[in-house]
């Protein structure tokens, strides 16, 4: 008896090269589940336009760089569907249909949107948003985020997910409000067009256990802080970054006792230790040695570097196996496969909505 494999759908905005936070937070999970589930993994290039619509110069390169990192991390285009959002125009049609039934209040109350607006109100984007002085300089107007598209971000995301009849969506904590909205939109669609039955499948979050990972400066690893270690770091820069990592400011000499974990003496905890925990099977000994003043930070960093050597060499080798042309053809093939499924779902939805086909 064969059970139908469950469908997984997830995506990342096309932000270019990925770092170890992305690797441990999302990619490793994707790689681990690609055998077990029917997986659709999407490069969300349209979502980039919701905020950076006036900065599209580097978008093509960002898409390719990110897919290369996916492949280097072990995603296999034979096992999963790797595709580009803008090459599957069916998403846009479903986005439009869903936008008809999505109450504005759901979007205006979306915590992610509100937070982003708040953040932006502190920047010059905020001026353009009209969140500060109404006499904001008109030169900023093209940076405005008071757009239909930015407010509709989660509706587009709902379309991305619902069009594949996804059962499960592996996402981080920050994306849970968006996923909840997708579920609510699906329910509303079913209430209006489902005659009591289910037309759209309600996706569930696949919670990801995200290990705590700090950037080189002790803050959360993030591209925008400039503290990230890329998955595809060259040996030279890798060495420089690791040797310059934030440790424990109270551990001045090698034999001073250290505070590797977050504590009053070292609130963020040690960045090197956070990586030791991921890459060193024997990290517990290292932590004890640090606390007892038996190892110094330089030795600890050198050890970490040697532990990173093998996985990083593997990334480089896998990445080198693909060139831009190979990436383009993987995306073209994946997008064609995605369109088959997306098209079939749309046919079903058009019928449910009694649109003439
Ligand atoms: N919003 C997601 C992010 O910022 C990206 C995304 C777009 C996504 N569409 C999706 C994630 C569908 C999961 C499913 O990371």
- Helical stretch count? 15
Q: Give the domain tally.
A: 2
CATH architecture type of the largest domain: 3-Layer(aba) Sandwich
Bound molecules: tryptophan
Strand fraction band? 5-15%
Report Rg. 23 Å
What are its keywords?
Tyrosyl-Transfer RNA Synthetase, 15 helices, two-stranded parallel ribbon, Rossmann fold, mainly alpha, 3-stranded parallel β-sheet, 7% strand, binds tryptophan, 51% helix, 357 residues
Topology:
Layout: E1 7-13, H1 20-33, E2 38-44, H2 45-52, H3 59-73, E3 81-84, H4 90-101, H5 104-108, H6 111-121, H7 124-128, H8 148-151, H9 153-162, E4 168-171, H10 176-193, E5 204-207, H11 235-243, H12 271-279, H13 283-291, H14 297-320, H15 324-352
Parallel strand pairs: 1-2, 2-3, 4-5
Helix pairs in contact: 3-14, 4-9, 4-15, 9-10, 11-14, 12-13, 12-14
Bound molecules: tryptophan.
What does the model show?
The structure is a single chain. The protein has 357 residues and is mainly alpha-helical. The protein has two domains: 7-213 and 323-352, HUPs (Rossmann fold); 233-319, Orthogonal Bundle (Tyrosyl-Transfer RNA Synthetase), CATH 1.10.240.10. Helix content is 51%, strand content 7%. The chain is built from 15 helices and five strands. A three-stranded parallel β-sheet has the order 1-2-3. Strands 4-5 form a two-stranded parallel sheet. The longest helix is centred in the last third of the chain and has 29 residues, at 324-352. It is elongated and about 75 Å long. Tryptophan binds at residues 9-13, 44, 47, 157, 160-161, 169, 171, 175, 178. Residues 9-13, 44, 47, 157, 160-161, 169, 171, 175, 178 line the site of tryptophan.
